[in-house]
Amino acid sequence: VEAFIKALYNFYKNLYYTFLELNPFTIVDGNQIVPLDTVARIDDTASFWMAKKWGEIEFPAPFGRELTPEEKYIKELDEKSGASLKLTILNPKGRVWTMVAGGGASVIYADTIVDLGYGKELANYGEYSGNPSTDETYEYAKTILDLMTREKDPRGKVLIIGGGIANFTDVAKTFQGIIKALRDYKDKLKEHNVKIYVRRGGPNYQEGLRQMRELGKEIGVPIEVYGPELHMTRIVRIALEGGEN
């Protein structure tokens, strides 16, 4: 029994199970353990590391909702990447869109938008983190911009490109993908009267913010840029209520 328990624990660890239960089991021929029923659970967070061992596993959408084509696309990118790329569409007709670096920051930004009374106008929830490549951030940003510019709002729209202070993510590098996507969508952004607010800190952030400022002049889209001197959530009030920094 001791050898079986040790082997079972190694099996549990090596395949990244979050839960594994053999209940009941029986012992036959004196020492052979045979499970009669098994319950196991895995977390799709480990899909990137476990792809070869798990094989083709399709995880159900949370709470029974169907994923949109865009959500599926970002999910597929996430599964193939060592970085984190997440996207949930809350209201495709919403006028407040976010592109946030970091899972914790994404929660704070969403909470602040709701606290200010704009919850029904919040269009999406998601985050990119883990030092994604330029191509990955380009695909992520392009997907959000495409969704954002499908339906007009007479009041115009707001895009908040936010985040905390990164520890190891090269801010300028990840901004390259976002900048490329913004260039591609410059005409649609102007057509939909989009205003962009950027707040970021971390490695190479000064260069990233400089490039964002220059981009605004280049493509003719209003882009307000702030660094870590501005409180992380202050940019939300500035974007939604026009407050002073």
Q: What profile does the largest beta sheet have?
A: 4 strands, parallel
CATH top level label of the largest domain: Alpha Beta
Helical residues, percent: 40-55%
Count of alpha and pi helical runs: 9
- Radius of gyration over C-alpha positions, nearest whole angstrom: 22 Å
Tell me, briefly, the overall form. Answer: elongated
Write up this protein:
By secondary structure, the protein is α/β, with parallel strands linked by helices. It has two domains: 2-47, no CATH class; 62-241, Rossmann fold, CATH 3.40.50. The chain is built from nine helices and ten strands. It has helices at 2-14, 47-54, 69-80, 103-115, 134-148, 171-184, 186-191, 205-219, 234-241; strands at residues 17-22, 25-28, 32-35, 38-42, 84-89, 96-101, 124-129, 157-163, 194-199, 223-226. A four-stranded parallel β-sheet has the order 6-8-9-10, with helices on both faces. Strands 1-4 form a two-stranded antiparallel sheet. Helix 5 crosses helix 6 and helix 6 packs parallel to helix 8. The longest helix has 15 residues, at 134-148. It is elongated. The model has no long low-confidence stretch (mean pLDDT 91).
Detail the topology: elements first, then pairings:
Layout lengths: L1 H13 L2 E6 L2 E4 L3 E4 L2 E5 L4 H8 L14 H12 L3 E6 L6 E6 L1 H13 L8 E6 L4 H15 L8 E7 L7 H14 L1 H6 L2 E6 L5 H15 L3 E4 L7 H8 L4
Helix pairs in contact: 5-6, 6-8
List keywords for this structure.
22% strand, 2 domains, four-stranded parallel sheet, alpha/beta, Rossmann fold, 10 strands, 9 helices, 245 residues, two-stranded antiparallel ribbon
